[in-house]
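User:
Can I borrow your eye for a moment on a structure tokenisation matter? Would you put together a sequence-and-structure record for a protein of your own picking? Please set it down just below, with no commentary around it:
AI:
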Amino acid sequence: MWGTGVSCGYPHGRTVAPCGTLGIVDASPVDDDASPASAPVTPAQRRSTEMLRGLRFGALAVAVIAGVWAWRQAGRYYHVFWFPEEENALSLTRSMPVVAFLLWGSFVCVARLERPSGFHRGLSLFTTAAVGSLDCAVFACLWWGESQEIQMSYPALAQLAVAALALGAAGVADILIRDRRNHHAKPRSRRIRLLRPTRPAAVATALTLAVGAVTLALPAEHYAAKSVQVPAAPAQPVPESLSDSVTWRRAIQIPNAGDLQPIGGVIAGAAGPIVITDHGAMGLDPSTGETTWSYTRGGKLVTFGDDYCWKEGNAWCYAAISPDRSRLVLGYDAGRVGTPLVVLDTTTGEVVFEYINNYDSIARLGPNIQVTDQVLRAGRNILSLRDGSIQSTLPYSTFYEYENPHYCGDRNIKRCWKYPGPTQGGHSTLVYGTICGNPSHPENIEPKDDRNRWCELITAPDDDPTALTLADAVVPTSRDAPEYVGGWTVRYADPDAAYTELSRHQDPKEVDTLSFPLEAVSLDTLAGVDDAEPVALGSLNRPEYNRSTRTLAVLGAAPTAEEATVQARFDPVTRTVYHVDDADSDPTGPGYLDDLRLTAPQAQEGIDLVRSDGSLALHLDYYSEDPAQEPYYTSNDAPYIVQAPGVITVVDLHSARDSSGDGYRHELVIYGVG
């Protein structure tokens, strides 16, 4: 019979589900709040219980999402939980979620055995809420302190704070639900029941998830980067000569960082000049000097590798650009958790991708990176410049032979130094490092020359990064490492003769007077990527170090008491050589422009652009957007020329007295002169 509870085909005395229903699922609504010993549950009570169920489900979902997010960030960044001064606080935060789960679980177990007292219920509610809130507060305070230091959202901690708060909310909701169930209880059913979602529960779940999503998004938004992009425009050619006067001026105020030198400089991009500052970069319109695209964030830029800098203001120390100038790489200081690398399109300002360069230790060193036209090498990983995907990872054994302490001794190189590769490689070649030293010396004779005179490059094609090639006879600069411009470097044209001659001279003054047949050689050729012919430079001494030039400058031999001067310049784009002493040469082109000497500022007389023969090419008056009544300027470093598509610029980073006359400010002044 229907509804009598009499079994159908079962022995008498056994209670089963009515005929026509599933024995394991209660098809009728099960009212957890119903109690035969109490008044019927009101609609308001039922609705509040359903909302608590929705809150519990939504909070648990938020906790899981936040926990997974924190776990992934902890795997993406190194040393996230390494707090030397807060180790005790961190151990406390690790134990708090465990304590909350134990308290919650103990109450659930007790609630299934007996009806808890009011004191027990109140204590459980207070403890669960307090532990979740305190746990959240500790994580949030840690996040705020660490984020303020690096001016970016510190990984994992904000997500853990949200997870702790969500767990606390879920625990409180669960305790309240179980308490109502105990006060309106009917005999517990052993059947599995499928809870039907109700509108109040669904609304509460949706609201909880929405609040959780906003809470998770806010920390990152607080330190979000500011980016302005523009459509790509056709690139203009680089001017070949100076104009008769200044076409535009641009002064950029740089905040005073106390005793620290400001970061400021200009490099050439694919569509015009690019300004590098403490917190990012901006592209300039070559016709007007106005800002086209920009990218800034709160963190401060870091220097790349061990490259030499003139001062802190040298833009080459803080930015790496591909040989074709289409990609710009910036790195931000994120403390012990690594360096976020940002790759920008230099024509539009678009962020191509971001990559976290992690350190193998907690030492905060500049990341060792390198850019070709196709890839970015960050540590052992080779990434595509198109989308940031990892193309390959170098095995630890890749450089074992060259890192061996006996390598230099086996090759009879007495004074041997190893340097990382440059930030800009060849067009299709990676330069992993340089091994430099002096040619062999006679036995038991201490060499007087402490400069490197001979270098070997460890190269590989960027599409086959483990196919190493050792290229020797590369000529270093006076700073002991080779010079690279546009994917080219300088090499001894007759390595055997040069090696023999260098071995005969121990006095550095003697070596500076020697001349060797030198040639410009492509890095791609050294790595076997192409077969571009070397270009003869003449009988000269060594290349000059200067990262801001468009050409490779080579110094001639000098008398012992005189300083060597540039005698030839090689343009990698046209593969032509400009000889400084050629009276018939046309006063145009990249070689001529790079050879212009910019006088160090004298008093308030401005900047002079002087030709190699001493004649004046152009005079620039000092410029400031907010000059004092009695202007006073002090350049932080010597001004320099940047040849960019569409314009030739003179860059001067100086300190200027402000209009009030009471203080000074840092200004990066850019003059369009071609």
Q: What stands out?
A: Residues 1-37 have pLDDT under 50 and may be disordered. Residues 43-76 form the longest helix (34 residues). Residues 424-595 form one domain.
